[in-house]
Model the fold of this input.
Amino acid sequence: MDKLEYDIVILGTGLGGMRAALEATKKSGSKLRIALISKIHAMRSHSVAAEGGISGVLYPDKNKDSFELHAYDTIKGSDYLADQDAVEMLVRNAPHEIRLLEHLGVPWNRDKDGEIQFRAFGGMSTPRTAFAADKTGFFMLNSIYDTLLRFDNIDVFHEYYATKMLLDKGVFKGFYVIDLATGNRKLIVARQGIIATGGAARVYEFTTTSYSSTGDGLGLAYREGLPLKDMEFVQFHPTALVPSGILISEAARGEGGYLLNSKNERFMANYAKTKMELAPRDIVSRAIMTEIEEGRGIKDPTSGMDYVLLDLRHLEQKILDEKLPMIREIAIKMLKIDPAYEPLPIRPASHFTMGGIASNKEAGVLYTKKKQVRGLWAAGECGSVSVHGANRLGSNSLSECIIWGRIAGEAAAKSALKTRGLSAVDKWLERAVTDEDMRISKLLDSHGEHNPYQIRKELWRTMEENVHVFRNKQRLTKAKKKLKELTARFSNIYVGDKGNIYNTNLRDVFELENMLNLSAVITECALNRTESRGGHWRTDYPSRDDKRWLKHTLAFKSAKGIRLDYLPVKITKWKPEIRKY
Amino acid sequence: MQNKDKHKLESINIRVERFDPSNKKFYKREYAVSADRFTSVLSALLLIKENLDPTLSLRYSCRMGICGSCAMVINGKPSLACETNLTHEFYKDKTVVVEPLRGFPLLRDLVTDFDDFFNKHKSVKPWLVASDINEQFEPKKEYPQTSYERDVFLPFSECIKCGLCVDACPVTNTNKEFIGPQALGQAYRYIKDSRDVNGKERLDIIDTLEGVWGCDFIGACSVVCPKSVDPALAIQMLKAEISKRVILGKKPVKEEIVDKPGPK
Done:
């Protein structure tokens, strides 16, 4: 088997991973050898689908804004579960990153003075979201990808799937990967690893995310016994296009769009009088689901899905053309609806994983509650620092991705420069590799009775029906039972494709294994948290309970199943108060 | 939609031109899928993979036309599968034909090899070079750029690297050395960015027979581009840029352009 050695290996090539690669190469004067691994073509990572923009206070005077206000909005938006010291890092570092991206080529929308334009976003007190039309993530990712091509010390591995994280008693050693194009299995050894594989919103049936957002990095970490933090907090984006789930950016409301129910009422007046359509996402999603459940939705006769309307007809044509061109193009191509003349059918869809691999504000990955893994860092949505707490504000994810990408890249580079020299392949590693090799061969050989795609379909359905915007004990228990059944069936699947070259059937099975584990963790954490906070709403415990639950959940894999523990929330100067908009 | 009841499912045949790399055999398979008025070619192919044939291989990710993964040939036209509505595509016998891109080395079924494509992209130095590298990587202040300056390169920055233009281009299909419409379009994008100072070096790279002078201005690239990038226009503008600098005397005419015949 091939063994490749690097100073730093980065798994995941979205904004977090690529920003980390850029920083690591910069900090080392392009000396360190860096491997950048993606299960798809690197520049096609889900970051390309980020639409609305990136938050940051660039012109405090012009926009009557401050770091203080950005931090307060973020913390209130998080329903006070964010770690406040981390939030302060986010707001202070964001302007630098927006400038850097500008210098790397992002075509930000500009005002008449040639300065970067900002737009309004949900839960933000003032316009503080920089944007490049409604393709901000696409432009950011491609600008960084293109910049990385300058550096010869970075090797990009397109279409390599990692099946195992090599972790020996709290020390990171590398990844076991499969080259999809050939089926060859390889060992990538490095003393420093950065995990930046994004979120797991694909565990739901109706989602805004790419097919690739299956939470592989979280799955790998969990399997090695690393804790996942706050997994009960899943963000449902209010406006996903029916029936595909394609995201219609919050920018559509930021630029003035309305939400209407079947009676043509702007129903947000009943849920968030002041902020209306620009309340935070958890609140708007609950409002839409309430309208639908109370019979004020509209049914799509083809898909059978219920929806409400996003109305952009009153916006100037110029706004659609310059600021929202992609959503217009998508609506016309996919639905034959031009939002300039007809409202769009939308409903909430799973969108973002607020939780993730438990990591600290230095991007270090936790091994136990107190100890850190040696040589492993997390960046972007797959980590949980946590700056989003129980609910993320729109456009804070791109800032988080890019900032903790930088922090992880810098930390890994510093450690790599200190401990140069390659890690020896020891007995433990040899054994781990042999075991993984056998596990994969066995899976590829599976001749069981269950179709993995049928299991996946039932998994999606289960999460959609029972672990959604509104949760309760009965539904969560039902989901837990069903997930157990699906996991049992997974051990008796068949893999129909026995080929080596580009075997996506086998890849789908690995993804499914991760999704089954993560769904069980989300459900267990949701069942355990008997309060309502941010994106986690329990109809049987409909209020926030700071006395018992102002704390982070940690979930560990154990012999007896999922073991839960807790971490305190860091509160600096913003004391929890009632959250009203 | 040809069905009277537009909400009804109907059965459509998908004929997939497949390739099995283990025995190097090409073969056709036909599958019947139920489609409604929203079904895309991509979702139909995934239904086949999930329910009828798990061995079908294809590339896909965002399903919203921005990641550039699912480029293939649908009813003879290079297209993104996620943006192509199945029920609008069928022939009279309700069959839709799906093939891999033909301008790329074939790996398996609908999956082709993009290595050469990515290398050609890289060959034109598609990254922004600012006048001060320290400021570029440790920024203090954003570079000003007017909306007008931005509009000059913006359409060319929309390239999703899907490969459809290269697949459609008759020159790349006959001369593998031709840099191709995608990379040339990206050279133009960076040359035209008011923040970039590396125009001269990029023009040197593409002022060759394998560069802009290889283009026969057929324009197929721009016809198939799903993001309206118009690489054909970019290439002609680059030719103009190069001619301009020749006329202005900043660089002598390259001999090979005068002496050697054009690409076959």
Notes: Chain A has a mean pLDDT of 97. The two ends of chain A are 58 Å apart (CA to CA). Residues 504-528 of chain A form the longest helix (25 residues).
